[in-house]
Amino acid sequence: MKVKRGNYKRFAITIKDSAGSLLTDLASADSILLLVKNSKTDADVDAVITKSKTDMDSGQLALSIVDFTLSSSDTDIAPGNYFVGLQINYTSTSKIEIDLYEGGKGTTAFTVTQDIVRG
Q1: Is residue 118 in a domain?
Q2: CATH number at residue 66
């Protein structure tokens, strides 16, 4: 995931379980949070960007896709590499946490680059 500082950008992430099957009950989740953090150990409240289920396309959630747009104010943060994670909460069962930063390589997955016209 890469974005220029101060620009808006839409992302769509297909969510699958460990067997590679679509996680089909996203629309029924009580809450979904997308968190962008400076460090993977930062508290959730310290995330530099937070998007909730209400910020996501509900039709896409029914298709196992987390679809959201970062506004220009969301991305108006210091250029650099960040960690991103997804929390899917179900009151009746459990909480699923997905570390999107891993990307199979243990690296950060969210990068903000400097926009040439911004200070």
Answers
A1: no
A2: 2.60.40
Per-residue pLDDT of the chain (119 residues; tens, 9 = 90+): 888 898 899 988 888 877 888 877 788 888 888 888 888 889 999 999 999 999 999 889 888 888 999 999 999 999 888 888 888 888 766 766 666 654 444 455 777 877 776 55
- Which domain range does residue 88 map to? 2-112
Q: How many domains does the chain have?
A: 1
The long-range contacts involving 21-26, CB below 8 angstroms and separated by at least 24 positions, are 22/63, 22/64, 23/64, 23/88, 23/96, 24/64, 25/90, 26/61, 26/62, 26/64, 26/65, 26/66, 26/88
The verdict on pTM exceeding 0.85 is: no
Phi, psi (deg, nearest 5) at residue 9: -155, 140
